[in-house]
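Sequence, structure tokens reproduced for absentees:
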Amino acid sequence: VEAPAAAPARRWAGVVGVGAGFAHSLGALVSPRFTFSLGVELRLPVGWLGLRGLAGVSWGGHREVLEAGEASSKVLLLPVGAALTYRLPFRVLTPYVLAGCLAQMIRTQNQLGVEERIRHDVAVTVLSLLGAERELGAGLVFLEGGYQWSRLENEDVQLLAGGLVLEAGYRFRF
């Protein structure tokens, strides 16, 4: 009697995940950060190569009192784009790298006294992250950190709309 053949390892996998954390511009902007990702991965002889679509939201603001009156500014950041990933599964922990390019929609609101200016801009964003994931339940828990570079300069705002990123979340492979 012959033993049944082992099922072949799958070559492609889908991945979907959500994350939460914060971004710090190394200046005045510290903001919460929420992300969503969806993608595909291809098994290589060593590791997995993936393509992910990314979308997120973060926001921040500050207020100060000046001689001319009270001033406040708020910013809303909506990055959307794609990234390449490479992960190397080990028994306990799977490290990975991610590098991508995004378009970041930026809404700024500046107010001095009763005068208010609102702008909507788009800036190119480059994202690079190092992370690790581990199986937990039906999916994987992950922790990642890195840097997101995006700069906005106009007559109203000069802003590093990125900075250090730290995020944790959960993802599924299917």
Remarks:
- The first strand starts at residue 12 and ends at 24.
